[in-house]
Design goal:
The structure is a single chain. By secondary structure, this protein is of the alpha/beta class. The chain has nine helices and six strands. Strands 1, 2, 3, 4, 5 and 6 form a six-stranded parallel beta sheet that branches. The longest helix is centred in the last third of the chain and has 23 residues. The protein starts with 6 loop residues before the first strand and ends in a 12-residue tail after the last helix. 47% of the residues are buried.
Length: 215
């Protein structure tokens, strides 16, 4: 029996490359599991003048924006599953990612994302820097959009070594710390796990948005 085709959107914001690294390995694992993946980076909302005050911000934004298209409304409607990735800023998601979510009002009104699988991953500088709080905070807009929220739980040994039961995460310290191998393993598991559950829902014809037509 042919496995159903799964479409995944991974939309993230990364200032220093930490969340980018988690997003890339989650995308790689999802593709290995047979999904078609769109990897998208939310764009800055701060002015160039403000970005220039933070060492490396402009350079990193230019580098990443050259690699990843900006997410669109069409990307969200195309996907069967969406993973959202963000750093923790004062215990809250990045404004850049929230800005993308805030622009999905028309999709919310039409129920265009209803039944799609949603998950989140995050990073923080310090062990109590808010990565779990931020992941849980992203559950709220997913609920309003009617998505099926999928936590990672402890569904793989990787989740016993890193991340959280809510989603993959990394604690990287100050500066430009990168995720540990254990953190990347947790992100890989999240990518694979999301594809597996999404495929089961598609196979059972429990993905209402696949059959919904635009108004």
């Amino acid at each position: 029996m042919t496995e159903p085709h799964v479409r995944m959107l991974i939309v993230f914001y990364s200032r220093t490359g930490t969340i980018e690294a988690l997003a890339r390995v989650a995308a790689e694992a999802a593709r290995e599991a047979g999904a078609e993946v769109r990897l998208r980076r939310a764009r800055e909302v701060a002015s160039v003048e403000d970005m220039a005050k933070v060492e490396g911000w402009l350079d990193e934004a230019h580098r990443q924006n050259a690699l990843y298209p900006a997410p669109t409304d069409e990307d969200a409607e195309w996907a069967d599953a969406i993973l959202f990735g963000t750093p923790s800023y004062f215990g809250a998601p990045a404004t850049e990612l929230k800005n993308y979510l805030d622009r999905l009002g028309p999709q919310w009104k039409r129920g265009a994302l209803s039944g799609k699988v949603g998950g989140a991953f995050a990073a923080a500088s310090w062990p109590h820097g808010g990565s779990e709080v931020v992941t849980l905070a992203l559950y709220a807009p997913m609920a309003h959009l009617g998505m099926v929220i999928l936590p990672t739980g402890y569904t793989d040994d990787a989740m016993l070594e890193a991340g959280s039961p809510y989603g993959a995460s990394a604690i990287v310290g100050a500066g430009k710390g990168q995720p540990r191998p254990e953190d990347l393993d947790a992100a890989r598991h999240q990518g694979r796990h999301t594809v597996a559950i999404t495929r089961a829902l598609v196979r059972a014809n429990e993905m209402p948005s696949r059959n919904r037509t635009s108004d």
